[in-house]
């Protein structure tokens, strides 16, 4: 099922593309949840599109290139996990917020590493979900820094999501690009694990700060000349981490 939403029995008219704050694709197979989310986003002046299965969502994403996606995990035809990967390959800059009843930490970390901007566990407040999407879109609309950033023997192209070290391609995950971009935007600033979790992972609180440590360890292994003795992604004991491009 796919539609541009006008909500039967409601007084809320659809928002035209010219008047909207952006287009939100809601991928959800529960008609009641579709209606609640469509109404809430429409009230906040978003144009809303709805897909009730994974294949339709993929086709709609390719055709419409929405501003953001609300994505359920359990869907007919293509799973939410697969869709998240596909969306990020097509348009890495488009924010995806996962909604699911799954509460396992491992599943949350996996989805965030696939590139999702946030993860909301059911049941949730529709208003909170809108606020999270609005915050994500605001952060994206900040003036862009240089698309290509160079430090030491590394060259990082954030727009095309390509990385090279000494001219040799390096494979970074979508979430590793996101973490590195935040460091680049905050050069020489000491960043606590809590700040990184909130700003990069999108959580105000998180079950374990080891998530940050593990991601930085992976970045060091891929980008540092000597990962065991890092020169750029530095640990500031008792405080967090600092990125120094030219030590």
From TrEMBL:
Any Pfam family: Trans_reg_C
Alphabetical list of PROSITE patterns matching this protein: OMPR_PHOB, RESPONSE_REGULATORY
Gene Ontology cellular component terms for the protein in this record: cytosol; protein-DNA complex
Gene Ontology BP, a term: regulation of DNA-templated transcription
Domain OmpR/PhoB-type: 146-245
Listed GO MF terms: phosphorelay response regulator activity; transcription cis-regulatory region binding
Occurrences of domain Response regulatory (ranges): 23-137
Residues modified to 4-aspartylphosphate: 72
Residue ranges flagged as DNA-binding region: 146-245
Keyword field: DNA-binding, Phosphoprotein, Two-component regulatory system
InterPro entries according to UniProt: CheY-like_superfamily, OmpR/PhoB-type_DNA-bd, Sig_transdc_resp-reg_receiver, WalR-like, WH-like_DNA-bd_sf
Alphabetized SUPFAM superfamilies for the sequence: CheY-like
PANTHER family for this protein: PHOSPHATE REGULON TRANSCRIPTIONAL REGULATORY PROTEIN PHOB, REGULATOR OF RPOS
Name of the protein in question: Phosphate regulon transcriptional regulatory protein PhoB (SphR)
Top-level taxonomy: Bacteria, Pseudomonadati, Acidobacteriota, Terriglobia, Terriglobales
